[in-house]
From TrEMBL:
Family assignment from sequence similarity: Belongs to the short-chain dehydrogenases/reductases (SDR) family.
MF-aspect GO terms: oxidoreductase activity
Name of the protein in its database record: 3-ketoacyl-acyl carrier protein oxidoreductase (Partial match)
Native species: Frankia alni (strain DSM 45986 / CECT 9034 / ACN14a)
Keyword Oxidoreductase annotated: yes
Keywords assigned by UniProt, alphabetized: Oxidoreductase
Length: 257
């Protein structure tokens, strides 16, 4: 078995921006092959042009289960394996618990929990049969704590973390690593008006939820963390002999709060 990630095949969700893009770049510049997936695959055109032999961009909305099955089957048929699955696609959501609808909550669970679970189920059997592979699940500091306006977001990330923890124990005997990444505040498009979703503010919660909303909006583009550094840290953690279960990145969580 290879001692480093060199020459491996990565499948990254949400590879069009932020962490996903940085993780894809780090992998391809180190000599690996990257299947970058996102809804906006055109955002990967430059990486595709720079590394035509080792980058592929595939359109994938991770809330579309049928599409997940089709994409993973196609990738396995053509590449024979995926060594590293990175469940990264996500979005932020700020809103009072009382005004969060079933629909909004379900949609966020589809994106942060059911999509990653389905991708993992699809790619796990070949990892188990080969006796190697890694599943990287991008959670958040919000997977361990929550506060006004963040209940739905944190609930989905906490669910992702517990799925990951149980999975890690199950698949360790097969040489498969599961890495939960908990970033603090990083400079990505997550907090941008376009990418972010904010439910309407309930007047009774305007003060507390409004404060979180303001923090998130004001933070757009000014977060301390560099996603390229996060990508390097993830790579180091995966290459380590004793990969940790959780990787908390950046001491920024407290500043953000
Ligand atoms: P960005 O907004 O920069 O990137 C989000 C990515 O997710 C985009 O590539 C987007 O691609 C993709 N995405 C969103 N919805 C879907 C969907 N339905 N199907 C497929 N892809 C989708 O933000 P980040 O890089 O910050 O976010 C990546 C992860 O990091 C998220 O899970 C987020 O929760 C987590 N995180 C980020 C923190 C930060 O400080 N930035 C802190 C803690 C956690 P497209 O629109 O093309 O589909």
């Amino acid at each position: 078995e290879e001692m480093t990630e060199n020459g491996k095949v990565w499948l990254v969700t949400g590879a069009s921006s932020g962490f996903g893009r940085a993780i894809a770049e780090a992998a391809v510049t180190a000599g690996d092959t990257v299947i970058g997936t996102a809804r906006r695959t055109e955002a990967l055109a430059d990486l595709l042009a720079a590394y035509p032999d080792r980058v592929e961009a595939i359109s994938l909305d991770v809330t579309d289960g049928g599409r997940i099955d089709a994409v993973t089957a196609d990738v396995l048929a053509r590449y024979g394996r995926v060594d590293v699955l990175v469940n990264n696609a996500g979005r932020t959501q700020v809103g009072a618990f009382e005004e969060t609808t079933d629909r909004e909550l379900r949609d966020l669970f589809e994106l942060h929990v059911f999509g990653p679970a389905r991708l993992t189920r699809a790619l796990l059997p070949q990892m188990r049969e080969r006796g190697s592979g890694s599943v990287v699940n991008i959670s958040s500091f919000g997977g361990q704590l929550s506060f006004a306006g963040f209940s739905a977001y944190s609930a989905t990330k906490a669910a992702l973390e517990q799925l990951s923890e149980g999975l890690a124990d199950e698949v360790a005997p097969f040489g498969i690593k599961v890495l939960i990444v908990e970033p603090g505040a990083f400079r990505t498009n997550l907090f941008g008006q376009g990418a972010a979703y904010f439910s309407e503010e309930h007047p009774a919660y305007a003060e507390k939820v409004g404060a979180t909303r303001k923090l998130v909006q004001d933070g757009d583009g000014t977060q301390p963390g560099d996603p390229a550094k996060a990508a390097r840290a993830i790579r180091l953690a995966l290459d380590a002999e004793n990969t940790p279960l959780r990787l908390a990145l950046g001491g920024d969580a407290v500043d953000f709060l």
